[in-house]
Amino acid sequence: MKKVISSILFVLVGCFLTAHTFGQGQGVSLNKIIAKVDNYYVLRSDLEEAYQSYVGQNQTPPQKCQLLESLVINKMMLAKAEIDSVVVEEKLVDNELDQRMQYMAQQFGSEKNIVEAYGKSLEMLKSELRQQVKDQKIVQKMQNKITTDVKVTPRDVRKFFDAIPRDSLPYMPAEVEVGQIVRFAKPTKEQKEALRQRLMDLKKRVEAGEDFAKLAKENSEDVGSAEKGGDLGFAKRGMMVAPFEGAALRLKPNELSDVIESDFGLHLIQLLETRGAEYHARHILLRPDYNRLDLAGPTRYLDSLRNLIQIDSLKFDKAAKDFSEDKNTADAGGLLRDPQSGGSRLAMDGTMEYALFQLLDTMQVGSFSKPLPYRTEDGKSAMRVLYFKSKAVPHTADFSKDFEKLQTIVLQNKKNRAIDDWFRKSVADVYITVDPEFHNCRIFGTTQNSAATLGSNE
């Protein structure tokens, strides 16, 4: 079998696990163990989820043997990480878990809808998802460790391009450049005051002797830290947002702050201890109900900006830098970035967000959308104006026009080879078995044993 394992691996690690993640409606057969790497298992449901992740993104799925090989390498990385004592910080797992739950809330409309859809509490769903998130973080860390020295030069890209027969050059899909200016919906003074008063009441209760950790678990809307009594662990200076860090560092150990406002909401902070350049704090976070915020203000603001841009009194990129509240795109003049290449050209195909694809299909290059409702990755309500900057028609790959894409391919290929080499060298350190049902799948570097029928590498 031709080896495309690692290229699939990178896709699998980053994919968002869907409803199948929680075992909803799965038959017993889907829970059958089909491969084992030391004490780590691959279930039939894992293979089906990996396959469906491609289908859900309108991509042609690889052969299931190739997917199985990739899943085995994932488990092998976990086994080797355990041997090599490679770990990830719990805080990173918590942050990723929070983002995924927020994403699900956006997809389902609310947390209540998630609970109704799965018939499980949010706490139970998070518990089921947490280990998978942690495993993915460990695999990513192992991948980074293996490929940290992999570099690509322009000469490598040229060599790769020149080696492709002219009649076999890939056909590139239509690509677009899109900019955005984002303005967040702001809570009213009344909404802020209500949250502020709630936190002041909680502060009084702590000062009267109630347990801060208990109150954080019951009230804080920072889901990741709430489960740990609001504990954020040790943080180096510069890690937290400035209002939070400034307030925390002004406190003495065990002292409570006044109510502090940041981009995340309103905080009540307690400093626990300091250690050199690090500090240990916990907090209770309250946030406004983003579904009830008034979008009229951001809409009027963006309408005015759009009018100035359309009459050429203000350039879009300058308006984005000066007025957009989306920090991820403002510094780039509002341009959206391809998450893989980091470039500004986005493939206008099945990988693009469907709502954006539909909108661009109705716009002319050089035009600006009206202010549109927008929900950020962390769940905030906002409005945005989109700028359809450019469109490249589908074309045969060209070295100059498609250098960024070609560079990404070459880099990925080098990383794939590095992981394949690592697998061959490390396979002897673990015990791999595969169910006889998949005897035609060839997990390279393995040997036949009593627990499974394994093919040899060809």
Automatic annotation (TrEMBL):
Residues 1-21 form the signal peptide. InterPro entries: OMP_Chaperone_SurA, PPIase_dom_sf, PPIase_PpiC, PPIase_PpiC_CS, Trigger_fact/SurA_dom_sf. Residues 173-273, 276-387 form the PpiC domain. Keywords: Isomerase, Rotamase, Signal. It holds the Pfam family Rotamase_3. GO terms for molecular function: peptidyl-prolyl cis-trans isomerase activity. This is Peptidylprolyl isomerase. It comes from Spirosoma validum. The lineage of its organism: Bacteria, Pseudomonadati, Bacteroidota, Cytophagia, Cytophagales.
